[in-house]
Amino acid sequence: MRKPDTTYRLQLSPDFKFEDLKKIVDYLDRLGVSTLYSAPFFRAREGSTHGYDVMDPFSLNREIGKLEEFREISERLKELQMTWLQDIVPNHMAYDGENVWLNEIFELGPLSSRYNFFDINWDYKGLNKVMAPFLGGELEEILSNKELNIQLGEEGFSLAYYDNIYPLSRESYAYILSNVLNGKWKDHFQNFSGNAEEWKDLKTSFLRKVYEKDDQIQLVNDNVKAINESESRMKEVLDLQYFLPTYWKRTEKEINYRRFFTINDLICLRMEDPQVFDSYHTYIKDLCDAGLIQGLRIDHIDGLFDPLNYLKSLRKLVGEDFYIVVEKILEAGEELPEDWPVEGTSGYEFLAQINHLFTKSSSEKYFSESYAEIAPDIADYHSLVYDKKLFILKERMGGELENLMTLLKEINLLPEDQKEDSWKEALSAVLAAFPVYRIYPHNFPLTPLQKGVIDEAIEKATEKAPEFEQQIQEVKKLFLGEAGKNKENMLFFLQRCQQFSGPLAAKGVEDTSFYIYNRLASHNEVGDSPENFGITVEEFHQKMLQRLENYPLAISATATHDTKRGEDARMRLDVLSEIPEEWFSKVQEWKILNLEVRKNKEVPSANEEYFIYQVLLGGMTFEKEEDFLSRSSDYLQKVLREAKVHSNWAQPNEQYEQDVFDFIRDILANENFRKSFDEFQKKIAGLGAVKSLSQTLIKITSPGIPDVYQGTELWDLSYVDPDNRRKVNYDLRKKYLSEFEKFNHNHLKEQLNTIKKDYGSGKVKMYTLNRTLSDRKRNFDLYQKGDYIPLKITVILQKVL
Questions:
Q1: Among 17, 415, 594, 721, which lies 20 to 30 A Cα-Cα from 127?
Q2: What 3-state DSSP class applies to 345?
Q3: CB proximity list for 284: less than 8 A, separation 6 or greater
Q4: Model pTM score
């Protein structure tokens, strides 16, 4: 195994291509980086800034660059003794008409060898169709308005709804051509029963023949036009499809495919099927075998039906001596399953641990009591999480819940003497009460740890829904394999539930509760939890000793493409934990000062106003930034919609949002507020910078593989995506690095004092990073094989006469 020593996360996209990467490879080497850690770079939806909406796993994204360019980069990496860590997405692909597998399925249906590649219930209501939720209204309304149109293009016939274009089925060709071209082609398509290659040949021959003569094109287009203008004929064409155009909001209550979280246009794969696994990883293996990739990061491992067997298959595919990490959210006290053949996680738990190291735990009581006065209705975090998970399950994932109930009945697990509605309520309560993302059952009896999770969920569910206690206990028996039913069916149902408990946690906690509960917003973070409030130095040491023993090659992240705020913004907010009295006194002062500029006395709410002050403290740059207000407003719009209290994505309350934007604009222009705020903010920024330098140093010298998210060599005060994926100024960073390389050892103290005084530029952080990474390179064996020895620091105070 070519062990990485330091990773540098890159968001390859149309805005940062291979040609851009080539220009910074040498810079990253000089910085001290050993491994380039790339976002998914396979063909994705056009314009994708993240790459997780893969449409073709067999080719690189043409908007990023060509394979030849990647080979050139790889050769340079080899010369520099650097490696490449690639993020892959086995759980889902883009639900798009250009998805190579969906395209084939929509045209050939069961004749496609990939018909069962996606997690689709084809038998749903006897439709033999997958819902395609891309409509802006109900189908009847769309048809009445003639918003659906058949069109003939270079790839054949397709159905278009504005920018959504889906290929039509082979049966459609016979229908459309029934009265044109002497019926010859109708017979060819009507009788077709071949495979994908034969279909492609037939379609190509047809298109070539049609485009030979203008009059033939005209005949076909005239027939297409007639269908487009006839609501009844359009319905007949839709009946022939393997997809059902559907109003997008219907998926909140009804759905027959598994999606990524609640995102309709990301459709999940049946990766537990060996044929799907082998096919999806074909090109990935080719790149690994060619020496272009030396490590893999597995996205959303919790979405898979059987993560353990997936990882075993992947390990067998790439070999025992290959670096693999998984994206996995671990709750406080939760450990990665010991039997997973991986080097560790992508580092969220390290982020949480170091975040808590810099939070003063003894201030928790003061913060909790003070926050309860500001937002008494949401001060109980555990109740908030349960309520929001239940809300997501019933209002956003109602279709998934219905599918689980249908499965219960289909495999004879629902007791005949029980009311279905009561069972649904009981199952909902248990799923909402799950204390972790999921468990990984393979047989009964469950392990003590797995049983402990179930017991905790049952206890919480019973507390929250005592009227369904009997049914909740029945769910418990089923989950433990003790319900007196078919054990294989009980295990299958439990495993299936685990594919939804993770998304439920992500949407109910990370994407809802984290935007509501604002006691100390630095802990509203992926991998962290706002219910926790600091750890001692001794506890941190213990966690690092465990990390060294169990997963010394796990990634140590402090910023990622998914983090809610920049790593240095978090350190600023952690400073508040050390001055709780002053902080809450300032909040009260600012509320009074800003009363004079409030146009709407009710907006923002007290909780939102408290949060806004944290946003400004954490995100305000050291130098005046022209787009700070617009960036902050964009961020707050996302906050309001994710919180789902006064606005949401489905039905945004634009007036409320505008009132919030006006509030932040007006307080930033309020001289009385700025006089008080700016003085405090400057102090917090300075103290936060000290914490940030410490965070950088500890990350690089602790057990694990330190990761640098793109651009965070300098201060990272960004907001959640897309703000944290903005273009990075590498010319500036190269300039700073060149300055460091010219430092004269004889004048080092003077030069260091200069960059410390200019700490607002971020040079001091970058210098710390560069020097420490360089030390890792020089002492590779020490950092990879050395012990972790906690030091006890004794402060001796001497009286100065």
A1: 415
A2: strand
A3: 57, 86, 88, 293, 296
A4: 0.95
